[in-house]
Amino acid sequence: MIFDKIKIVLIGLANIFNYASAPVEEVKVIEYKTEYIYVEKYSEGEEVLLQEGEYGYSHILNGKEVERKEPINQIIQVGTHKDTEYKGTLTGYGADCKGCTGTVACKTREKKVWNLLDDGLVYTDKDYGDVHIVAADHAQFPCGTIIEVNNSDYENLLVVVMDTGYTMRQAWRNHNYAFIDLAFEAENGLNAVTNKNTKYHVKRWGW
């Protein structure tokens, strides 16, 4: 009987010792910060994510840090460019127009030569996703400019300037008038696209 009691006490002491010596482990999350970069390329108030933020962590064992990963800050570009609103005319043009080859005047951000018939009417932009290709005067709206189009036919249509034309250049340079041409595959039936009461809001200037 006495030996059983001693055995119970010894087992209890062993459990207490094991519990006391068990490792104390903790992982703490380290928050990332947000940095803002102010750039003239984007219109005033426009915010574009440049870099995703990632949380870091600290792995602590028995009160001592044994592993650490620093957080990666989130970076957001904030536009400062003013005078971004325009009124003018929107028309349509076909890649099969007389004398046209379908190849637009601008190369893409990736330096690719773009053909409307082979590559399509829509370009996937790294900032704004899928955007429709338009022609405009590059002196005012350089290659890669992102514009939001609004009229009675199109609402919040995002387009990218990748082409140009004589009429567009003359309209801006001689009359300070925004004339933009929306790209289609064929010329047939494009008269319905013409809208002389179109509002343009520039979101990004150039690539």
Short description:
The chain is α+β, with helices and mostly antiparallel strands.
Secondary structure blueprint with pairings:
Layout: H1 2-21, E1 25-30, E2 34-43, E3 47-51, E4 56-61, E5 64-69, E6 74-81, E7 85-94, E8 103-107, E9 113-115, H2 116-119, E10 122-125, E11 129-135, E12 146-150, E13 157-163, H3 166-175, E14 178-184, E15 195-204
Parallel strand pairs: 2-6, 7-14, 11-13
Antiparallel strand pairs: 1-4, 3-6, 4-5, 7-15, 8-9, 10-11, 11-14, 12-13, 12-15
How would you describe the overall organization of this protein?
This protein has 207 residues and is an alpha+beta fold. It has two domains: 22-81, Resuscitation-promoting factor rpfb (Resuscitation-promoting factor rpfb fold, Single Sheet), CATH 2.20.230.10; 85-204, RlpA-like domain (Barwin-like endoglucanases, Beta Barrel), CATH 2.40.40. Helix content is 16%, strand content 48%. The protein is built from three helices and 15 strands. The protein has helices spanning 2-21, 116-119, 166-175; strands at 25-30, 34-43, 47-51, 56-61, 64-69, 74-81, 85-94, 103-107, 113-115, 122-125, 129-135, 146-150, 157-163, 178-184, 195-204. A hairpin with a 6-residue loop joins β12 and β13 (157-163). The longest helix has 20 residues, at 2-21. 24% of the residues are buried.
